[in-house]
Amino acid sequence: MSKSNTTIYPFCHSLESLSSTTIGEWNPSSINRGCLTVQSKKLIANSHKLSAFRNLPPNRGFAMLFSVLVSSLLVVIGLSIFSITLKELTISTSARESQIAFYAANSGLECALRWDNLNGHGLRSAFASTSDDITSAKSVRAFCNTVRINETTSSATTEFEFKVNNPNTLNGPCAKVKIVKIPGSPVGKMTTVIESRGKNICDASGRRVERGLKATIITQI
After folding, report:
1. How far apart are CA 216 and CA 106, in angstroms?
2. Residue 162 neighbours by CB distance under 10 Å
3. Domains: count for the chain
4. Contact 174/163 with Cβ under 8 angstroms?
């Protein structure tokens, strides 16, 4: 049986991987040439890829990085502006509530001064200066808004609280007033101390702000 002259080139297969029953003659030099040909083609292709990568523009991708940096900067600026606006709003609200409490305290002080200084109307003060003077002081029907302010007087110190605006509102501004009368201090004179504490809301719930006013009046007995 004659051998076939067909030459098989297994290229890059190793000699050990060839079967002993491979038909035909094969030339190792052909295998080497085939391997070198395939490997050289791969090397050339890889070199082209590397050259293409090296030839990329040096600023490729910079636009995306720049966009991210600008976006981050805008976010930081926006958050800063929001924080400043929130603080300004809080300060503005606090100032408004403080003003309401101040006006309430001023209303309480003015009401107490009016009922203490009644000599010009031929009446005595609505507030007692001694324990013996309580009945006489109660004879003057004194009101702040709709609250009888001297009805519960039991000593030379009078305290009352009233709502400044509508007395029927559940949670409006109010004032708490304390009047202390000290006869003979200094000698021959009457010292009257009025303390008024205004609140923006009377109820304990909510953001309550208080402001106080104090007046000291010295008159002849």
Report:
1. 14
2. 21
3. 1
4. yes
